[in-house]
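Task 17 of the worksheet. Students: predict the tertiary structure of the chain below and write it out as structure tokens. Keep your answer in the requested format; marks are given for formatting as well as content.
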Amino acid sequence: MLNKKNMALEDVQVEVHTVSEGKDSVLSRKVHLVGALSPEDKTRLMEIADKCPIHKLLTSNVSIQTESI
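Model answer:
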């Protein structure tokens, strides 16, 4: 149970699939929320998932700087 938000979240299962087309890639994410959750709870949990640091990194404009030492 997610006590802090008073939600009956019992488990989360996430599937991620990648589709690449040339230089472009698309990540497809399926999130299965387990528990007696209201539609509002599910919406809020998905908003929280989108604020995850990894989600933010993957949806930003990323460049890689490499230094040889």
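Marker's comment: Strands lie at 9-21, 24-35. The first strand starts at residue 9 and ends at 21.
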